[in-house]
Design brief:
Layout: H1 25-39, H2 50-57, H3 62-69, H4 74-91, H5 98-101, E1 110-115, E2 121-125, H6 136-152, E3 160-165, H7 177-190, E4 195-201, H8 208-214, H9 220-224, E5 226-228, H10 255-266, E6 296-301, H11 307-312, E7 325-330
Parallel strand pairs: 2-3, 3-4, 4-5
Antiparallel strand pairs: 1-2, 6-7
Length: 331
């Protein structure tokens, strides 16, 4: 196998996007009701952040994710989306200038590279490569990568994978419990229904206390998506899985090359805005894959009937709230 610095920016051609959420007429009406409520809160057009707020609200996955997270309880969904709107106005996660957080990426402690078998972008975290002291910039760095993973999601995919590798981590390099709680707060409150899987590998015994410390702050849905030392070859195509974890991908991290490939692909301008023609994101990331409607028959089944549900025994695919999935079969 030849080493490469080329980043996987598109899913493997064999990828079938899932889960696909199917909504009843009643649920569709609830989604529309939430949409109308959220748009009643939009900033005035004169506000510089107006178009970015509207951009986020108009993404096809925003309203459904908040309804699913609220278990279809309208009052809860409205409270959640109002809270996220307020957070986004202050944090402006979609407008973080690359150079503001670039130094945090120099050692590759967080990289975005490749997709799992369901088309989810993969964020790798390696605490052992920590290179800076605790600061608000570390959180902004993580959020910057969450936004890039959102950018790279192929059409129909709403979730991502986070793989945490503790191979070289120590008590000194591992984030504090307070920092981890802040990260969880952002993920669980403002990126609802975005985590598809959380994979933890090479966790040393000395850091078990860390997970015991954050467990009370994990909501049941997030906790159910966590897997410790799974066979990752069952989850990620070998062509996208680093050889370090049993794959065929001999990726060699080069900070400048990795950074440039992701920034260019997502069309991020130096001030954090988007280059012309990139306002709605990168070019379609799944043009090589057949759309679900073409040449296939879709069979709707309950989540408990899917092979993934049976094999894993719980909803690691992000379908814990009982949504149906579409299982695609050749016609």
């Amino acid at each position: 196998m030849v080493k490469t610095t080329a980043v996987h920016l598109f899913p493997d051609p064999s990828t079938v996007i899932k889960p696909i959420h199917v909504y009843s007429d009643e649920q569709t009406a609830q989604i529309e009701e939430l949409r109308q409520y959220a748009h009643s809160l939009v900033l005035p057009e004169s506000d510089p952040y107006y178009k970015w707020e509207l951009r986020w609200l108009n993404k096809p996955d925003t309203m459904p994710r908040y309804m699913r997270a609220a278990k279809w309880k309208m009052n809860d969904a409205q409270k959640r989306i109002k809270g996220t709107l307020e957070w986004r106005r202050e944090f402006k996660p979609d407008l973080i200038p690359p150079d503001e957080v670039k130094v945090e990426s120099e050692t590759g402690k967080i990289i975005l590279n490749g997709f799992d078998k369901d088309g989810r972008p993969i964020i790798y975290m390696r605490p052992g490569r920590e290179n800076t002291v605790t600061s608000p910039r570390q959180l902004r760095h993580l959020v910057w990568w969450l936004e890039r993973a959102k950018d790279m999601m192929p059409p129909g995919q709403e979730t991502l994978v986070i793989m945490v590798d503790y191979k070289t981590a120590t008590l000194r390099t591992n984030p504090s419990i307070s920092t981890a709680i802040k990260v969880l707060g952002i993920l669980q409150q403002h990126y609802v229904e975005t985590l598809g899987r959380a994979i933890v590998i090479n966790l040393p015994m000395i850091l078990n206390f860390f997970y015991k410390g954050i467990t009370p702050f994990l909501d049941p849905v997030t906790r159910d998506k966590m897997r410790f030392n799974p066979d990752v070859t069952e989850l990620i195509p070998r062509s996208h899985l680093d050889s370090e974890f049993g794959g065929d991908y001999e990726y060699e991290f080069d900070h400048e090359l990795h950074w440039k490939q992701v920034v260019d692909h997502c069309g991020i301008a130096s001030d954090g805005t988007r280059l012309p023609a990139y306002f709605d994101g990168p070019k379609p990331a799944i043009s090589t894959l057949p759309p679900p409607e073409n040449g296939v028959v879709s069979t709707t089944v309950g989540a408990e009937d899917t092979p993934e549900k049976k094999d894993e025994g719980r909803g690691a695919a992000g379908d814990e709230d009982g949504d149906t999935l579409v299982v695609v079969k050749e016609s």
